[in-house]
Amino acid sequence: MSALRASLLKAIEELKSEVVTMADLVLNNINEAFLAFKTNNLIKAEALMKADDVVDQYEEDISKSALRVMWKEQPYAQDLRVVTGILKLVTDLERIGDHAADIAEQTIHIGDLKNQRLLPITTMMSEAAYQMVLNAINAFVKQNLELAKKVISDDDVVDQLFNDVMKSVTDQIKNETIDSQYAVSVIMVAKYMERVADHAVNLAEWTIFMITGEHKSTPLF
């Protein structure tokens, strides 16, 4: 192996390591945001809103590192796909981090309302969305094509749970058994969960691109 090739591989592994560190933080934030919502933990929610700045900084730093690798190491073929894919991955990770902050914000907005927060459905939805993100990251780390495809197929589960939340809230509004402010916040939180799952799909699609060179059935390079 040439010194040039060894330098490129080392740079790519360092990039991957930075992505994993960022992903761990995002996974923690989204899990804690779901927990804060379900348990009405306003202190935790406030802390999570502040923690989003760290995620934003990771995105900026990793993007700069990836661009330096492209300029300095001049990767091609699969190596170029990996670096390009990482640039896209960190954007979706940052947006998942944003949604963790969004959920925390809605938790604070609801405040001390003591509704049950539709726990059976929102719990299943948050767990499914979280697992999709976790599987998407593992697919990236292991470059596992089948796991990436599973993430994409699992999105249907989250979509159905979102529909279930909407139906439940709508029924409660009709029956006047739910506070209107609370109903809006629950719908918003469910929507953020759905978007987290959508970004997990994006993560999986970029991993597929790294492995196969194809993205959304369109050959690239």
Report the average pLDDT across residues: 91
How many domain modules?
Answer: 1
CA-atom Rg in angstroms: 19 Å
CATH level-4 homologous superfamily:
Phosphate transport system protein phou homolog 2, domain 2
Could you spell the SSE succession in H and E letters?
HHHHHHEE
**What's the level 1 CATH class?**
Mainly Alpha
Low-confidence residue ranges = 217-221
Main sheet strand line-up: 1-2
| Gross morphology | elongated
Helix content: over 70%
Major sheet attributes: 2 strands, antiparallel
Strand content: under 5%
Let me know the number of strands.
2
Find the CATH topology. Methane Monooxygenase Hydroxylase, Chain G, domain 1
Total count of helical runs of at least 4 residues:
6
- Category from helices, strands and their pairing: mainly alpha
Alpha-carbon distance between the two ends: 24 Å
Provide the CATH architecture. Answer: Up-down Bundle
Description of the molecule:
The protein has helices at residues 3-39, 42-73, 77-110, 119-142, 145-174, 180-212; strands at 214-215, 218-219. The protein has 221 residues and is mainly alpha-helical. It has one domain (3-219): Methane Monooxygenase Hydroxylase, Chain G, domain 1 (Up-down Bundle). A two-stranded antiparallel sheet has the order 1-2. A hairpin with a 2-residue loop joins strand 1 and strand 2 (218-219). It starts with a helix and ends with a strand.
Summary?
The chain has about 220 residues and is mainly alpha-helical. It contains six helices and two strands.
Please write out the topology.
Elements: H1 3-39, H2 42-73, H3 77-110, H4 119-142, H5 145-174, H6 180-212, E1 214-215, E2 218-219
Antiparallel strand pairs: 1-2
Helix pairs in contact: 1-2, 1-3, 1-4, 2-3, 3-6, 4-5, 4-6, 5-6
